Amino acid sequence: MKKEIVNPETGEWAEHDVAYSDAVVVHMPDAKRMFISGVAAEGDDIETQTQATLEKIEDMLSEFGGGMEDVVRVRVYINRPEMDEDSLETVHGVRSEFFVQEHLPASTLIEVEDLVSDEFLIEIDADAVIPDDGWETEHV
């Protein structure tokens, strides 16, 4: 089995060594499994940051022949001051532009005190399975 480490130089900006990559892709016989580290993006508000963050995730998936329909799990971290009903509605509105009903991922929403930088309001990580032959989806 093959494992690809995506951008292992991720932490070069840090004052100290960090031990992570942007993603890890595991090549299996009939699919690729992709684990995407937490992604954040700049922007003036949570809507802009959510949009840009999901676009970054989408771009990473496309590099390996995948798309948002291949995401099977996301974890969404929202900075505590932003956690209110309006923000949650905004985040879910943006998410609905990327995740269609037929391929909704499992999801966890976590309220945090702070993210790595004060400018970030949201961070999202994702796990994806990119099948060689597409999906046969069943809703139960």
> Into which percentage range does the β-strand content fall?
25-35%
H-E string: EEEHEHEE
Distance between the termini: 32 Å
CATH superfamily: RutC-like
What is the SS-derived class?
Answer: alpha+beta
Under CATH at level 1, the class stands as Alpha Beta
The strand count comes to 6
Question: TL;DR of this structure?
Answer:
The protein has a single domain, classed as 60s Ribosomal Protein L30, Chain: A (2-Layer Sandwich). It is 22% helix and 32% strand. The protein is built from two helices and six strands, in the order βββαβαββ.
Overview of the molecule:
The chain is of the alpha+beta class and 140 residues long. The protein contains 2 helices and 6 strands, in the order βββαβαββ. It has a 6-stranded mixed β-sheet with strand order 1-2-3-6-4-5. The protein has one domain: RutC-like (60s Ribosomal Protein L30, Chain: A), CATH 3.30.1330.40. It is globular. The model has no long low-confidence stretch (mean pLDDT 91).
